[in-house]
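call fold(seq) -> tokens
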Amino acid sequence: MNNDTLLKNLVREKYSEIAEQDKHTNETTCCGAGATGGTYTIMADSYASLPGYNPDADLGLGCGLPTEFARIQPGDTVLDLGSGAGNDCFVARAETGETGKVIGVDFTPAMIRKARMNAEKRGFNNVEFRQGDIEDLPVNDASVDVVVSNCVLNLVPGKAKVFGEIARVLRPGGHFSISDIVLRGELPDTLRNAAEMYAGCVSGAIQMDEYLALAREAGFDNLTVQKQKPILIPDHILLEYLTEEQLHTFAASGTGIFSITVYAEKPGEKPERTEKAKVNLADLPQAKACCEPGSGCC
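ret:
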């Protein structure tokens, strides 16, 4: 079994555990999968003020608010990579409306079950969840207007493949808004090799310049960092992977861990969406009376 397969199995195992827990449990353990180590929830932003937010679908696993920046329009088809319990999908649905469609793809069967249950509870018929690998999306070519994702590409070994898949499924003129974790400087080996830190989106992080280059190499235009914030991992978590001396060295190294939200567009002109013409009765020719009212001839 190769290293990429091992990492994917690790992610599936960890996030299967997290799917069975509520947000409060994840936050109070500071890792989501137990009381020792991890960084699953310390990066999360609050969705509470966004239309469409459903607390039941929020496991506190994100590192940004990509749907807030995604420029979703009514009638759009939106794809969420790593959809979890459905949080970003339901926020996207509030933007795309009844005439649009939202598709969530997740690698973990337990997350898909939870997301489908949340959608069924709310009668959301235009939100669909598909189990699959975001390196090989179960989505047709050029079928999506907007792609969003929240702190998920770090969990995937083949990040270049994911950007290639995003380019494949987007329509010409479509765009993505993705929140993720990136680095400036090098992590200590003990952090980079830690399984818990990988599942917590830290040791899977790559350099910011490299991350943005992958999007450009996939053919995207108008690449923009919409938001950036530093992520400060508490010392008590770092000390599970570093000695005191290593911690001081790391703190003095200038290495930065950041949450960024990145926007980019697929080249091409977005096709006009066809809508049924609305008939204004006042614009129609008015029928003439066959004779004067009251004459009794009609």
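DSSP finds eleven helices and eight strands in the chain.
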